[in-house]
Specification:
With about 350 residues, this protein is α/β, with parallel strands linked by helices. Helix content is about 40%, strand content about 25%. It is elongated and about 60 Å long.
């Protein structure tokens, strides 16, 4: 009799344990993910995030920012999809998020155009869409709730203003510049390219050639090698991210030329990654415009504002700095506003996380 009672008791305990485990399991297809915390049922806010890819150090840091912010401990279930630089993969991911009935869709678009249809589907499903980094060009701006990212044109303006000061200070008689662009059609490429084109026209610089380096080191090396064969008078290279700058520097050196102040060719870059700043410190890169990748905390702020009906702005720019390889900080004026351009120190390099 005792053995029968004991067996029954064990069975009850096991059944209860199985039930607790079953209830505690995360159900990712539901709009609110049910979990148990301290013996009470709780819900996670589900975020579907489609990232462009992992083409650069900046992009990897941007992904880390989202993963650090949207964790179960902070009340979120993050569904992360890597589009591998393909818009078709991003559209598939967004449709998958809609089917999973996530609470919010966040994505960084590969290019600006071609999003109207899938964003209309998200709107019909009543899922707010938050866009980060690059922008979208859609007929109806109500298809997305907010955009968070950089002022890419201002980044380029600041870099060109510093370049103009350097040219004047060094009394360089003629500027012969080539532009290794980012992924054509991306917001970052459009903004930075437009800033250079406007500056070249304003200051009388010779813009010899423009070609996409696709934001990668390997492609930039290929493009720079070709440009050096076609133009023997290049003295400035405007690279639209650090990885392109690294590839360009290697190509220049392999061609028997030098980079940096006092050298044959000056490099302008963007992102201000740790390696990019290190190379700026060592005077391989003349100017490096920061592109802030830490978007996660700003996305979370927008989500909180949406949930409390307090969203007061459609676009949110993240704060950014401009760095210089020369010995002292400098001040520049743009649009009636003064900006400090920082000289890079070892301390600044060491503090950079990415």
């Amino acid at each position: 009799m005792r053995r029968k009672i004991l067996t029954t008791a064990i069975g009850v305990v096991l059944a209860a344990a199985i039930l607790i485990v079953a209830v505690s399991m995360v159900e990712v297809s539901g709009k609110q993910t049910e979990i148990w915390k301290n013996g009470e049922k709780d819900s996670l806010t589900t975020i579907g995030f489609s990232q462009v890819g992992a083409e650069s150090d900046w992009r990897s840091a941007n992904s880390i920012s989202m993963k650090r912010t949207f964790t179960p401990e902070r009340g979120y279930d993050l569904i992360f999809e890597d589009a591998k630089q393909k818009q078709s993969d991003q559209i598939k991911a967004i449709r998958k998020f809609i089917q999973q009935e996530v609470d919010y869709i966040v994505f960084s678009p590969v290019v600006e155009s071609g999003w109207d249809t899938v964003l209309e589907e998200a709107k019909r499903a009543e899922i707010p869409v938050i866009i980060i980094d690059r922008k979208v060009a859609v007929k109806d701006s109500s298809l997305y709730a907010a955009w968070i990212g950089s002022n890419f044109y201002l980044e380029g303006q600041k870099a060109c203003k510093v370049m103009k000061a350097y040219v004047d200070e060094q009394q360089i008689p003629e500027v012969n510049i080539v532009n290794i662009q980012g992924t054509l059609g991306a917001t970052s490429q459009i903004g930075r390219t437009n800033a250079l084109e406007d500056a070249a026209q304003k200051y009388g610089w010779n813009l010899l050639e423009q070609e996409s380096g696709e934001y990668t080191e390997a492609k930039a090396y290929e493009v720079m090698s070709k440009m050096l064969l076609e133009h023997d008078d290049i003295n400035f290279v405007y690279c639209e991210n650090d990885n392109e700058a690294f590839g360009a520097i290697d190509a220049i050196r392999d061609a028997g030329k030098t980079v940096g102040p006092g050298g044959d060719i000056q490099i302008i870059s963007f992102d201000a990654t740790r390696e990019g700043l290190r190379r700026t410190l060592h005077r391989e890169i003349l100017i490096n415009g920061e592109c802030n990748p830490w978007h996660g905390e700003y996305v979370e702020k927008v989500i909180h504002m949406l949930e409390t009906n307090e969203l007061w702005q459609k676009e949110m720019y993240v704060p950014e700095e401009t760095f210089y390889s020369m010995p002292e900080d400098m001040q520049i004026m743009l649009g009636g506003k003064e900006y400090t351009v920082q000289t890079v120190t070892e301390s600044i390099v060491q503090k950079r996380e990415y």
